[in-house]
Amino acid sequence: MANRSAIKDIIPALPDEKIDMLAATSVLQQQAADIRNQRIKWQSYLQSQMISKEDYDFVVAFDTNDPAAREAKLKENPNQAAKTFLNLLGHVSKDQTIQYVLIMIDDMLQEDSNRVEIFREHSSRKRESVWGPFLNLLNRPDGFIMHMTSRIIAKIACWSHETMEKTDLHFYLTWLKDQLKLNNNEYIQSVARCLQMMLRIDEYRFAFVSVDGISTLLSVLSGRVNFQVQYQLIFCLWVLTFNPLLAEKMNKFNVIPILADILSDSVKEKVTRIILAVFRNLIEKVEDGQVAKEHCIAMVQCKVLKQLSILEQRKFDDEDITEDIEYLNDRLQASVQDLSSFDEYSTEVKSGRLEWSPVHKSAKFWRENASRLNEKNYELLRILVHLLETSKDPLVLSVASFDIGEYVRHYPRGKHVIEQLGGKQRVMQLLGHEDPNVRYEALLAVQKLMVHNWEYLGKQLEKEQTGMPGSGSAQVPAKA
Fold first, then answer.
1. Using one digit for the tens of pLDDT, what is the confidence trace for 331-386?
2. Strand partners, 162
3. Residues 155 and 114 sit within 8 Å (Cβ to Cβ)
4. What's the whole-model pTM score?
5. What is the CA radius of gyration of the chain?
6. Distance CA 215, CA 249 (A)
7. C-alpha to C-alpha distance for 133 and 129, rounded to whole angstroms
8. How far is the C-alpha of 360 from the C-alpha of 364, rounded, in Å?
9. How many CA atoms lie within 13 A of 256 on its CB side?
10. H or E element: which one contains 236?
11. What is the pLDDT of residues 236-256, one digit of tens each?
């Protein structure tokens, strides 16, 4: 089990984060305020012998609006606090009472973060997991109970001296991820708030990535969500990019195109600011210079320079935004200067957002670079074939078909490679596509695949005839 102080990450606090904490949990907080006003009749629980006299005495004394009285009660016997709260959660079945107890626990921790150790010490004394009683409540049907419990788990996981154990951590992060994916989840801001806390800790970041967390964040961001949720989820991406390894991997999930789209539509300053902070980390925190360069090119291709020039005209109160705009402008302009046409092409293909940029139609580009599509085990060709299979965008399908045709035309063994990768079959399927441009480009590509075959056959015949006069037959390659 790792010690928290050893892995604590220093992340600068953003100015309005405290305000966001309140806004982020507004649905939960509004409901909590209503539930607080409905005081529990603890006497009836004692009379019906549902709770012990010991638990009754503690909860009655602690259930007060006087913080000093609560503090005195906790100091008197901290173990009794954990014992009573866990007994109540375990033995009371009424939702309203469980809700009330969870609010008491959450308020207690919010008043003093060191109080999380009360639960830690109690569980180690009993040789039980601190997480069991809370994780069980995540399965309750009541939304308030689930999400208030989740807040408590995040606080214990982040404020305790010891980190959350692997299996419990995996369970909790998977639960949070699944909650993000739920349609119209009224508690989504509370879910995002828990992730904002959890992902400040390095070990939790890697665990989140292992449960497919990054692609979940981006899938939610690609849909329609309000600016508050946008801000919170991009904040989660931002804290992830403080780890150099994660910053390097991030654009494999298409984070740059998705955030560039949000940036171009964003009207909220805090959303703009957090996106620029992510972009800066994707260049600055990455230790591999080549990856940083690829990130710069990807930003250029996603029209980030144009957005930066628009943002430069605006007046911002926050100096960080101005600094980030200047930094990104300098780095992106520099990357444009030494951008080779192959770098540009490679980044465009990897982004999956193909368009008729100049390189595609340049015969010089294909003459010089066709063979480079074989690099890294045909990485770019595999992506092109994958796009033919999965993309619904007629522009992407047209350009990918064209590129495959050009590769075959300029690389002698291109036809064989494309057949091996399943590209020929994909292109032929597009001959029946509903879009006329896709049909046209697919037809041209198929023709290039055929013509290449006959050129090869012609050369083979010529070789046979010149090399072996009088020899009877030439070996015919496999039919196209």
1. 988 887 767 788 888 888 988 889 888 889 888 889 999 999 999 999 999 999 99
2. 3
3. no
4. 0.73
5. 30
6. 12
7. 8
8. 10
9. 31
10. helix 227-240
11. 999 999 999 999 998 889 899
